[in-house]
Amino acid sequence: MDNLILIGFMGCGKTTVGQQLAKRLSYSFLDTDKYIEQKLGRTVSRIFEEEGEEHFRRQETEALKELAGKLNQTVVSVGGGLPIRTGNSELLKRLGTVIYLEASKEVLAARLKNDTTRPLLSGKDGLQKLELLYDKRLPFYEAASDFKIVTENKNLQDVVESIL
Ligand code: S3P
User: Fold this and answer.
1) How many structural domains compose the chain?
2) Any binding-site annotation on 123?
3) Which atom of ligand 1 is nearest to the CA of 117?
């Protein structure tokens, strides 16, 4: 099976780290947001806008089920909310070794300040929403992962090395 699954909050670096990690290992790379966007032919923001969050969450679980047993030597980056839904952490563990990329609230807030691609953080109170979500999600990330990598004070290469 040999897959590595990256989880963590929006902006923690799952995609950047995942792409680099895949390159180092000569693995494939897959991002669940992109998988869903390609399948539905719409961006994540449009899916939220037109069908609502719950529809997107169902698509995430569906994607995990579709990918089960099909991936080999693949680094998978999953959307920040995916490990929270009941049952998804078991599906993730069946897919591969789950690695939680931890970043502090402060670092994430700075990175996501002007982001317009994450519907859950949109609006003037985006940073407040981030804080609330962060506290709520932390225990889920801890419980769903086999390993945690603290990314604070590490550059991209250091994070990749830590995972390897
Ligand atoms: C979400 C994170 C996003 C994307 C969607 C919802 C979340 O992915 O799936 O906007 O609930 O945390 P990233 O974690 O890749 O930004």
Assistant:
1) 1
2) no
3) 10
